[in-house]
Amino acid sequence: MKKFLLMLLLAGFCIPLGVQAQAPKKVSIEGTVTEYNPKEPIAGCVVSIPTLELWVVTDAKGRFRMPSVTTGSYTIEATCLGYEPLSYKVTITASIGALSLRLKESSLQLNTVTVTAQRGRSINSSSTIDRQAMDHLQATSVKDVMQLLPGVVTSNPDLTSSSYNFIGIRDLNPNMTSVETLGVNSSTVGIYVDGASVKNDASLVGEKATGFGQPVSKGIDMRTISTDNIESVEVVRGVASAEYGNMSAGAVIVKTKQGRTPYEVRVKAVPNTKAVALTKGYALGPDKGFLNVGLDYANAMKDIRTSKDAYDRGTFSVNYSNTFNRDRTPFQFNAKVSGYLSKGTSKPDADDLSQDERKFLDDKSLSLNLNGSWLLNKSWITSLKYVLSHTMTREYARNKALSTFVGVANPGATEPGEGFVEFTPHDYMSDIRNLSMAYYTNAKLMAEVSGRYGKVYNKAMLGAEWSNSGNTGKGQYYEGVRPIQFRPQPFSDIPFMNQVAVFVEEKVTLPVGKTSLTLQAGGRFTYLATDRLNDKWAVDPRFNLKYTIISNRAPKKVRELSLRAGWGIQTTLPGLYTLYPFASYIDNYSLRLPAAGERPAMEAWTTEVTTAEELSNRDLKMQYSKNFEVGVDFEMFGIKGSIAYYNEKMRNGYSTMYTPGVYSYREYNYSGAETPVYIDDPNNPGQKVLGVNGEPLDYETVTKFKRIAKPGNNNKYDKQGVEYTFDFGQIRAIRTSIIVNGAYMQMKNMPDVGVKQLFDLSYNSGKIQINGENVYNPVYGGYDGGKSLQGTAIRKRFNSNFSFITHIPKLRLITSLTVQCVWLDRSRSFKNSGVYYEDAEGNKIYDFEGQVDGTLYKDPDWYMDAAGNVLPFDPSLYDGELGNAFQIYRTTSTNSSLFVQNSFKPYFMANIRITKEIGNIAQISFYANNFTNSRPKMKLQSTGSYRMVNTEMYFGAELKLKF
Fold first, then answer.
1. Comparing C-alpha atoms, which of 684, 690, 648 is closest to residue 668?
2. Where are the alpha helices (DSSP H) in 580-666?
């Protein structure tokens, strides 16, 4: 594979050189870009020929000049912020000296307005959502925008949830008890803003803070990306270009506003969220560029009747953009400073005196992004693109609560050994804090050479990317009294991590008779510089092709017909929290003495430490997915549509892998009145032991098991499905367009399936009764495929969204009514290996499906003895001397329908959105999700319980002022 990609690289850059002598002649294009009416010049408009990767930017008088254009037939495009894009087909045989392009200002007065996701321009499955669609949707964050994609069901925004605001692509939660999908593959979705990768793989949360800190393993919290200053969002669902790395489930590409715009004030009000935003694009003068400024503030409450759970967010961005040397080799330069402040609070209800816990999140981020393109337009290089970004993210979490661990021993040693411990006060507040200071630096340089050579269009790309990430935060700490069994976890001890990638891609379009074939092949080589992995390389080959049978034939009944396919590997690299786990501690008491006379209560504890080095896993593999898709795009008989089948197999998913260990400590047999002290152990020179009057106390050596939690690769899933979109066009008599989209989706989750020797996570370190005596369990049970009775879980769903969009230009009004239909919704858990039930004669029945008559069981496959030996399990051990010990590891369930398929009847809901412009100064929008409040109860056959489907009724309004 590496040799193939190297040949691809050489071919991509040698093709242009080899055919240079046959290349068509070069001409120039000059012209102006003006407003449609009146004909005022438009500065800062990008005029481009995408096929040749050529572009220019108009000056203050709307003029442009594009030199060295190869003769041929092309589509010239003109795009500018605040205007409808223009496409102009032209056949160029000689220089053009006065090309006039006229753009219409974006408005509901136009005959064509787009408020849905449109097919992307990529060769793969992708969708683009522009500014008008986001305004009509009234999105609060980028997560809301994802509802416009085929197969995604409606979900209500909830800014107060720190675990909800993550996005997945082609995602389906296997658990039908969840109303909406919660981002099963969100951690593997690539997020890119203005060319820079946005990551959180250096954000860390201490062990004690996992319950109230920000989740670090789910990806980017989309609440931190406001939509008010966004120009467009592209979602790549298929096999992505080799340019995009460190992701395996797709990419979300965000482009922010650049160019002149009026002042825009946006005010949003929904039952639990209030938001206001201000944006403005300043023209700084002839050839001085533009300055775009955006401010946003949002406040949300979980329940409007109380401020108990609340979330506040403020974002800002300042972007300067300009193009230098316009007439020769244009150099586009963008510099943006942006950031956010967010606070999440969970505090006691003032009317509930029984509550005493307070949780607090305070996050701040500051980013610098430099990006642009340099159009050289040489025979050996067309353009050079660059991105340089740096982000600092401060995440602070605090949990203050009245402790229930009062007047008890409080071990907290960070080194292994035995010693006396302090006691907690009889009344105190536990105040645990977590401070993460993550830094991310990303630099990318990409060279492109493209052109037309004979009848062949070629584009080659070669690039390199470097990323650096680390954390200098104080980590997990406390204030006041040390909380129970608390250990500090400083993040600054973890080294920074570097990633280096080289990527190459070749795209060739060649005629095949009256048809054309486009081939795109590339690869990405990534090296992760860390001492915690043996295998540090990731190689991602990616291929896409498109066969265009009919293209742009007007006014034929069949205007477009093309077939496409793609295959590729996409890798997600491990983050700091995966590669650098924290040390773990086990505390056991060795001596307990109650107060006697003047002697206070005393306790000695032994701490067993598993170091961070021991918890690391150098054999960890990189998580990747193999993606395949095939699709058809068409426009015929007035219907424009696309259908795509996809198949994705994720392997080596990052997880926690538990392995067993054995350790020993002393338990003293002493209850005297004299105070013991540590003395030299006469039986073990160099060691200390508790003694009285110079004599060691009697003790028993206790052996126990411990769970060693290491990063592993136990997760995997398979996804497949069919996505479809049909645009039936507009019924002119009622000015209503009908669009149908949806998907059949199947997701198969297989955590721990096929994994050997997984040990019981619920190991009880206490005593059990064996032969009439209370002793510590001398065995530790283990399993193939995990302890759970359930193995593979499958969820299937087929849904359609029928959108009826009525647009009345004279009234500057657009309404959309979307009926969401879920025709099929099923889930099922399949039994794990070794699961059985017993018939009336006591025979074990392993071969069964669905409903059973009796209790379900799963026996251990292995066990570890007190000497650390791993031995095969035999059911006869249940009847032996250690029968009680082994019974603890036998999994049982009286739910005889555990493996029965859950299947819901079809269910429906309707959403409505209305947008009305008032002149050129105001726009009012309203929306209501599930406005009929359709929430039928459906029975889960596997549990006998019921759940309500569809989201709750939810509504909101928005006012936008322009001046």
1. 690
2. 612-615
Of 861, 627, 885, 675, the closest CA to residue 773 belongs to 885
The two three-digit tokens of residue 238, written as one number: 């298929």
Distances (CA, A) of 570 to 439, 447, 575, 632, 651: 25, 22, 16, 23, 11
Strands (E), 732-812: 736-749, 758-759, 767-770, 773-776, 780-783, 790-808
Distance CA 35, CA 28 (A): 23
pLDDT at 14: 47
Cα separation, 636 vs 632, in Å, equals 12
- Mode of pairing for the β-strands spanning 251-256 and 190-193: parallel
Three-state DSSP state, 876: helix
Single-letter code of the amino acid located at 37: N
Report the 10 Å Cβ neighbour count for 894: 8
Q: How far apart are CA 620 and CA 622, in angstroms?
A: 7
Tell me the three state secondary structure of residue 218: coil
Residues 6+ apart with CB under 8 A from 880: 886
Question: CA–CA separation, 585 vs 205, rounded Å?
Answer: 17
pLDDT, one tens digit per residue, over 80-114 is: 988 999 988 888 889 998 899 999 988 888 888 88
> Is the peptide bond prior to 555 cis by the omega test (within 30 degrees of 0)?
yes
**pLDDT tens-place string over residues 149-202:** 999 999 898 888 777 788 889 988 877 765 444 556 788 899 999 999 999 899
Site of tokens 């034939």: 553
Tell me the C-alpha distance between 923 and 918, whole Å.
6
The rounded distance, in Å, linking the Cα atoms of 90 and 552 is 13
CB atoms within 10 A of CB 599: 12
Say whether the peptide bond before residue 330 is cis (omega within 30 degrees of 0).
Answer: no
Cβ atoms 879, 885 nearer than 8 A: no
Strand partners, 294: 279, 317
Burial class (CB in 10 A: 0-12, 13-18, 19+), 670: middle
Residue-wise DSSP of 838-869: E-TT--EE-S--S--SS-EEE--SEEE-TTS-
pTM attached to this predicted model: 0.91
Q: Which positions of the chain have pLDDT values less than 70?
A: 1-24, 177-184, 212-216, 304-307, 347-358, 553-555, 754, 757, 761-762
